[in-house]
Amino acid sequence: MGRTPLHYAAANGRYQCTVTLVSAGAEVNEPDQTGCTPLHYSAASQAFSRVDRHFSANHQNDEDEAKESYFCLEHLLDNGADPSMVNSKGYSAVHYAAYHGNKQNLELLLEMSFNALGDIESSIPVSPLHLAADKGHWQALRVLTETAAYVDMQDAAGRSVLYLAAQKGFPRCVEVLLAQGASCLLNDTQLMWTPIHVAASNGHSDCLRMMIDYGEEGDLTNVADKFGQTPLMLAVLGGHTDCVHFLLEKGALPDAKDKRGSTALHRGAVLGHDDCVCALLQHKASSVCRDVQGRTPLHYASSRGHTEILAALVQAAMATDTQNDLLDDKQYTPLHWAAYKGHEDCLEVLLEFKTLIHEEGNSFTPLHCALMNGHSGAAERLLETAGVHMINTRDAKGRTPLHAAAFAEDVAGLQLVLRHGSEINAVDASGCSALMVAADKGHSGTVAILLHRAKADLTLLDENKNTALHLACSKAHEMCALLILGEIHSPTLINATNSTLQMPLHLAARHTPALACAPNKDVADCLALILSTMKPFPPRDPSSCSCGPPSVTPSPGLNLLKHCGITASCAPLPSNGLHNGFVKELDGCLSE
């Protein structure tokens, strides 16, 4: 490492060795490979002292070694050691003494060096004050601040010395800096945080109290960062209740909004910080304030399942004049959000208040929301409390809760709405019934229930004149197609053509190599004739089917080409597929 014996003697505070080596002609300003001279190591010598010193039972020995280290540093300075020399990273001996908190060594360096003041206020890469504050060496920091003419220097990221002390939570360092006039309003360059922000964010309440009580001019409690966040918002984000209480007592605005319109209460509701929410509500924070998407804290508490917070927010909302206006920009209520996520406890809280139950909102009702995500328990709770009047409610696209249950393939939810009198053959704006939705999605269990128990109508046509069989065949949902074929007894329905004159067989042929490769109608007729004269299909192994009851598997020898009428005229196969899927209504609006 390029170190001389003098480096080691200085680092370990060996005064007699240092004197002997210097007398013998050792170079006092010789740098090692990192650019450090013996003076650098001597300035930090208490940190580099022998291991056995830490196990000394004699306190007097510790003091003697500290004095010996001090004399070592003094001897080097008396013999021409240059305190202005910096290592490869730009640190001088003053930086080293500050970093290791060596108060006596600092005092000596500052006393004997004419360049010490420049070293202190240098911020390349950081000042000695930053190093002392970052490590919590308040005594060393006091020595530095009493010498420096300016204590508000900032590092390359714009962080002041007070910022670092507040970030690490060193109240003694904060006290020293405030006594020398350090500003609490200097912000960094990345987030535009002040020392107040960083103390609140990290929950250092002692540091926060000192800075705010110091009495600097300006509104310390409501200063905003790059995103419009106040210290109160950051304290709530971290769940630092002590900081939240103190900031509110000192005048922090509970309803201040950031650039997205979110308040401290929005943050508490999302993260489930009960104590912070209670503190905000005690200081009259609005439970129905809205962010840029029109969402209130009640929406977020409902979505996250924070039942106790939701109950407190509802109580506060009922005491306001706007209690009947809890719709976000998509016209969803907190009830929609709780149902969509399946939080039954939150539903219990909301359903206790009749004004929330009957509030008009998006026609895609809470029942739709619960069923589309398979939350049958939440759906049952809604039907029990809110009444069965919503069982056949239609959304803006004409879809009923039965459509939503069919989309989710939730057997329990499907059976629930069927028990409550759902219209089996209700069709949406595109003409799709629940059976057609299930067939299109390939939900064979749902198809089986709708066919065998509910006796769904197989003759219904969507806007493109597709039957349920068309939709199943178009997506190669074989089990759904077989279930439907098992209930069809009329060749007319099997050979029904859609708006492009395609039969279910044409759609299924896309997934049958022989027929799909036919270049024209004549070739297709020939291939169909060959297939129809071949050996009947072998019986299916019920164990190979992952869904649907075994009782509906095709009987041995079932010829799928029977009654198919391949010679019927038809238009060329279109290149595009069928698009009759049940699209998610919420489009991610209810995601966090």
TrEMBL record:
Q: ANK repeats: which residues?
A: 1-33, 127-156, 157-189, 194-223, 227-259, 293-325, 330-362, 397-429
Gene3D superfamilies reported for this sequence: Ankyrin repeat-containing domain
Q: Does the keyword Chloroplast apply?
A: no
SMART domains reported in the protein's UniProt record = ANK (SM00248)
Q: Which UniProt keywords apply?
A: ANK repeat, Repeat
Please indicate which superkingdom the organism of origin belongs to.
Eukaryota
| Leader sequence segment | none
Answer whether the UniProt record assigns the keyword Repeat to this protein.
Answer: yes
Q: Which Pfam families match?
A: Ank, Ank_2, Ank_4
Which InterPro entries does the protein's record reference? Answer: Ankyrin_rpt (IPR002110), Ankyrin_rpt-contain_sf (IPR036770), Dendritic_Spine_Reg/Scaffold (IPR050889)
Which named protein is this? Ankyrin repeat domain 52
Which organism's genome codes for this protein? Pogonophryne albipinna
